[in-house]
Design a protein that fits this description.
Length: 1183
């Protein structure tokens, strides 16, 4: 099946090219699509590719059960995708009506057809649905105006996807306005063409009206125009279909006479409707498809009181509510009340088809893929309006009709199928029709109908029929009585009919139910018949269940080869098949049952349950096949994960099938090897569908930890370095796959030996190094042994890394960074929640240049990129040149530490960012070139330069050995002076209160920038214990003086718990701050602090108040802790310590000057007088 799916996928690719090569090809496709307008667009394309002449298609089980038609042996199905998204790589098959033949239980296949006399009703319906129409003179103008209105109303739903999907195609070379104009024109003209063709009207369109279709030769672009065309055409044709069906149904119910009827020697099964149409001079109600492929017509045995009155007049692909079938018995006895699938109802107290008591368990509900394609909501009928054929009511009796006439005779405005309005002709005409109908029934019975035709008489009784004829005749006035019949002739019919019945010796009033019971065929209930259809890999399994509620039913089971393949592995294969196949039934007494029974009893089957080993024959249909299994996730299976079979057997561990999931299956081809099987194409789409990170809930860190525990710890290699190389190679592989949908991913074990696999992965790694230079040295190689590498590749191959979740990547990268490197170089990974809040409040915009001068693993820039993508539909709302800017120039950074720099590069690659990330020291002259930015988001390293030396930058006004003060200078100098450049920076408390250069830098910051907000962060959010930090928000001014007027402080530290792994920081902790921040609009801010609320966290200080503080300190707190302890800033604590220290010093000095003091020479261990320093206490003297 997988190979067939690939072939159909290739066919789909080719038909896209074919139908868009020119206007004529597109028109040819539209002609096929209009006949099958209820199919999805992708199905219409594949239908055109395989059977462009198809007119009425259904799946095989629908032909069987809904219309009683069988698919011809050798007929080739029309393969289409079961799931257009590709999530399920399965095919389903349609068959055209010409691929089927009728049976004795067949019913007509109705296909509606437009007629001139319907035009006014159709026009009215289109006007009511799609708005006012100005030109109602011709059907062609009505179609064009209706389509124009429909497209204008709905095109916005589609045009957005068209513009987005046009990226990288020829559409890029024309303006957006021109592209939209071409798109709208093509959709309108395509819909007009489809509807006109279906209605037999002249669209007036030429090939030039479809100029531009060649632009739509990609999957995405053709889908954007194809689905719009298909959906809107379905709206219009649905309205027409509904209207035409209503008219046809009304016409079928209208009973009309014909005085010139010449009776054939035999009455056809739908004789009544046919002669009434002729009698009333009505046009034919529509084309009814009844022929076979050869074109020979064949009248199907349709129940007279069924299909002629209530069969849905629709194209064959109908919704399930229109093609209801009866309940479905399982061999275990359950019945389901739907077409195919499984029931979710419980039946109690019945016996099932296996002659055992009915099971009381619930069956599973059938899935959506078991249903035929439903009509669109605009033209679907409610199931309440479509009764089962077996329950259709007959036409009203003559008595009922006469009563209707009497009841409504006086009403002018009311009309119904049997009502009469007073007037010269309308009153008489209808009664003429009724009388003529009754006369026709008499004539038929006296002709070849014989005594058995009494069932056509009113009440199935001669006297009742004649009595009603006389009553109807006498209802006419004397001058209006019909000339073509008289009272004498009516009485003559009584005499002749009574004699006919008496001569036949039949019981007139025999109960019809008793007749049916007496005529029940003897149907074998101990035989199962199997009909094999290898073209579509399906088997139809039929048996008779005598114990159903209907008194017996034929059961149709539809088995796919996949179902049979799975059954091979089960203890009871047939029970498994019954539980999992699609199943439908045909009940005794329903239309077509007798014909189906006759076929069941006479047709020769491919496999019969009467054959010896028939189960083995059935299961052998799918051989040879293979399946690939993968160990399930779970802690209890951890020991199996990296263990070979020899080790497992030696330690009493065995492969239990219950521990494995089947991940792939297919048919084994001749001379096919294991490597051929494993090398089945595996694209980026396949990886996305099977991504372990999303399906198992595991993280990348979990997988790395498992590899480290099981493999890498014993491999004698640098774990960080080797994992980094593998992720690097895999990322390169996935990036190619993301840009080329057909690319077969290489980072996977596809059946090679360990040595061959290592050669393949090393080659992939080398290609990655060549593309992304500078991450690894030119001579870098993978140092894992082939067996170790094979296990690591198997662990990573099922995970999608490219454009993966930020938290997943951050966690893995933090783990890869050794803990020592974090402390040594002042690196502290910023919590993702804080990064997101800072990014949200700074709000980077498309077209802005963003920078992080101490970028670490590039987390801030990744978040800024994500923020912009979230607000521009992943950049698709931006012009193409701006999209390119966002990918290649918008985000940049600089990192000092080599390993961290490589992680930053990889993180950027993971998220399709290729802006510059420099390996260097921002605080050296290298950093002088980093300037002119619109946005800076950063958390610079804490501490001092090594050895206490000052920064080597020669452009700093206030050089200092304090790293963070130097970074602060760099940051506000790197912002451009256009008036909107802004920054959010994480800084420790000492930046806010340091004196000397610290104070001068703070003053310089407030002069050059509007330092409008300081957020005091809680403790415990960084690795270092006790680190207290803040976020400074400021905007660079156009001038270098007088930019800060007031500073707003938010205290998220005082009276807050300490955060950490057991109490993580959450975005909800910032809710009040975000509300107070007001998107940076200072004029709308309001303090929560006041004299009445001294613990309000949001407080404003003017620039003058700040300048008045000692050392221009920004380290401010005002809140009192609820615990009763004071919360001091670090500068306040230092002041208190200095004050207390000074007091202690004074006290010590005073003691030293006291005459009572004694001095001890501790080093010598003696008093200065020479006495021992310690020992007995000295005697107190008189002094």
């Amino acid at each position: 099946m997988a190979r067939k799916y690939e072939l159909i996928n290739d066919l789909y690719d080719q038909i896209i090219v074919d139908v868009t090569k020119d206007a004529r090809a597109w028109q040819s496709f539209l002609r096929t699509a209009c006949r099958n307008y209820k199919l999805r667009f992708d199905e219409q394309l594949l239908l055109f590719a395989q059977r462009p002449d198809a007119t009425a298609v259904l799946e095989i089980e629908r032909w069987n059960t809904a219309f009683g038609r069988w698919v011809n042996r050798g007929a080739k199905g029309i393969a289409v995708f079961e799931d257009p998204s590709g999530k399920s790589q399965r095919l389903k098959y349609y068959f055209d009506i010409t691929d089927t033949h009728g049976t004795k239980r067949s019913r007509e296949v109705p296909v509606w057809k437009m007629s001139d006399e319907y035009q006014s009703d159709v026009t009215e319906a289109l006007k009511n649905t799609f708005g006012t129409l100005s030109d109602l003179d011709s059907l062609e103008s009505v179609i064009k105006e209706s389509v124009s209105n429909a497209v204008d109303d709905n095109i916005d739903d589609y045009i957005y996807n068209f513009i987005r999907n046009g990226t990288g195609s020829e559409i890029d070379y024309i303006s957006t306005d021109e592209a939209e104009e071409i798109y709208k024109r093509l959709v309108k003209n395509s819909v007009v063409y489809m509807i006109s063709e279906r209605l037999g009207a002249d669209s007036g369109l030429t090939e030039s009206d479809f100029d531009g279709i060649e632009y739509f030769s990609t999957h995405e672009l053709l889908n954007s125009i194809g689905y719009a065309t298909s959906d809107i055409a379905k709206m219009g044709l649905g309205v027409v279909a509904k209207t035409v069906r209503a008219i046809e149904k009304e016409n079928q119910q209208a009973i009309m006479p014909d005085n010139n009827i010449s009776y054939n020697s035999e009455r056809s099964s739908n004789y009544e409707r046919n002669h009434l149409h002729n009698a009333g001079r009505l046009s034919d109600s529509g084309s009814i498809i009844t022929g076979t492929a050869g074109g020979n017509t064949r009248q199907m045995g349709t129940d007279e009181k069924g299909i002629s009155e209530a069969a849905p007049q629709d194209n064959v692909l109908q919704s399930d509510d229109e093609l209801s079938v009866n309940t479905v018995p399982r061999r275990n006895g359950t019945e389901s009340a739907q077409t195919g699938g499984r029931a979710d109802q419980r039946d109690v107290g019945k016996t099932g088809a296996d002659r055992r008591a009915e099971s009381e368990r619930y069956d599973e509900m059938g899935s959506a893929d078991e249903q035929s394609q439903a009509r669109s909501s605009r033209d679907s009928y409610s199931a309440d309006n479509n009764e089962r054929l077996s329950n259709i009511k007959p036409l009203p009796s003559i008595n009922e009709q006469t009563a209707f006439i009497a009841e409504y005779e006086a009403e002018v405005t009311k009309a119904s199928a049997f009502s009469v309005s007073p007037g010269k002709n309308s009153d008489d005409k209808f009664r003429y029709q009724l009388l003529s109908r009754m006369q026709s029934d008499c004539n038929y019975m006296l002709g070849n109908g014989g005594a058995g035709a009494i069932r056509y008489l009113d009440g199935e009784n001669v006297d009742t029929h004649i009595h009603n004829m006389l009553e109807l005749y006498n209802s006419f006035s004397d001058n209006a009585k019909p000339e073509w019949i008289s009272v004498e002739e009516i009485e003559g019919y009584r005499e002749k009919l009574t004699a006919l019945v008496a001569a036949s010796g039949k019981e007139i009033q025999q109960n019809s139910v008793e007749k049916a019971e007496s005529q029940k065929p003897e149907i074998p209930s101990d035989v199962d018949k199997f009909y094999v259809q290898p073209e579509i890999e399906q088997v139809t399994w039929i048996y008779y269940n005598p114990d159903s509620a209907a008194g017996g039913q034929l059961v149709y089971n539809y088995l796919t080869y996949d179902d049979i393949f799975n059954a091979v592995l089960k203890d009871d294969p047939m029970e498994y098949l019954l539980e999992n196949c699609k199943q439908e039934t045909l009940d005794r007494g329903s239309a077509g049952f007798d014909g189906a029974v006759e076929e069941f009893m006479t047709d020769s089957e491919d496999i019969s349950s009467r054959e010896e080993n028939y189960v083995g024959k059935l299961l052998a249909l799918t051989e040879p096949r293979y399946a690939i299994y993968q160990l399930k996730d779970g802690e209890e299976l951890r020991d199996y994960r990296f263990t070979n079979s020899e080790y497992m057997q030696a330690h009493g561990m065995y492969a239990d099938r219950e521990n494995y999931n089947q991940v792939y299956r297919g048919r084994m081809q001749e001379n096919e090897t294991l490597e051929d099987i494993l090398n089945t194409p595996f694209t980026m789409d396949d990886l996305i569908k099977s991504d372990k990170l999303t399906q198992t809930g595991k993280s990348l860190k979990d997988l790395i930890t498992e590899m480290e525990d099981e493999v890498l710890a014993n491999a004698g290699v640098d774990v960080f370095e080797e994992v980094f190389k593998l992720i690097f190679a895999k990322l390169f592989d996935e990036q190619i796959g993301a840009t080329d949908p057909k690319y077969n991913l290489e980072f996977r074990n596809s059946g090679q030996s360990d040595i061959q696999l290592k050669a393949k992965i090393e080659k992939l790694f080398k290609k990655a190094c060549d593309k992304w230079e500078g991450v690894f040295s030119d001579d870098a190689k993978i140092n894992l042994t082939p067996p170790h590498l094979s296990i690591c590749v198997s662990s990573l191959e099922g995970e999608k890394l490219f454009n993966s979740n930020l938290d997943v990547v951050d966690e893995a990268f933090e783990y890869l960074m050794s803990k020592s490197s974090k402390g040594e170089k002042g690196q502290y990974f910023t919590p993702r929640v804080l990064i997101n809040i800072m990014t949200q409040l700074v709000a980077p915009q498309p077209g802005e240049r963003c920078n992080d001068p101490a970028c670490g693993t590039f987390g801030f820039m990744i978040a800024a990129d994500r923020y912009i993508k979230d607000h521009t539909d992943d950049l698709f709302e931006l012009p193409v040149d701006q999209q390119e800017f966002q990918r290649t120039q918008a985000f940049s950074g600089c990192e000092l530490v080599h390993d961290t720099h490589r992680l930053a590069l990889m993180n950027a690659m993971l998220h399709d960012i290729s802006g510059p990330i420099y390996l260097g020291d921002t605080l050296s002259n290298f950093g002088k070139e980093m300037r002119g930015y619109d946005v800076v988001l950063t958390n610079p390293p804490f501490g001092t330069k090594k050895g206490g030396e000052r920064a080597t930058r020669d452009d700093f006004t206030f050089p200092t050995s304090n790293k963070q003060l130097n970074f602060l200078q760099h940051i506000y100098r790197s912002l451009n002076k256009h008036g909107g450049a802004r920054a959010a920076v994480v800084l420790p408390d000492n930046v806010l209160f340091a004196d000397g250069d610290g104070e001068r830098i703070r003053r310089d910051l407030m002069e050059k920038c509007n330092l409008h907000t300081i957020l005091r962060l809680p403790t415990g959010i960084f690795y270092a214990q006790g680190v207290k930090t803040n976020v400074l928000f400021f905007t660079r001014g156009r001038e270098d003086k007088g930019n800060t007027r007031e500073i707003w402080f938010y205290d998220l530290r005082s009276d807050m718990p300490s955060f950490g792994k057991t109490n993580p920081l959450k975005e909800s902790h910032f809710d009040e701050f975000i509300e107070c921040y007001k998107d940076g609009d200072l004029s709308s801010r309001t303090e929560t602090y006041s004299a009445e609320n001294p613990n309000g966290r949001w407080r404003k200080f003017t620039y003058e108040e700040i300048l008045a503080r000692d050392k221009t300190s920004l380290d401010i707190t005002w809140m009192k802790s609820d615990s009763g302890t004071e919360d001091y800033t670090l500068s306040e604590l230092l002041d208190q310590i200095k004050e207390k220290s000074a007091n202690i010093a004074k006290a010590v000095a005073a003691l030293e000057e006291s005459p009572h003091s004694r001095r001890y020479d501790i080093r010598a261990g003696y008093h200065s007088s020479g006495s021992p320093a310690w020992g007995t206490a000295p005697c107190r003297s008189a002094e």
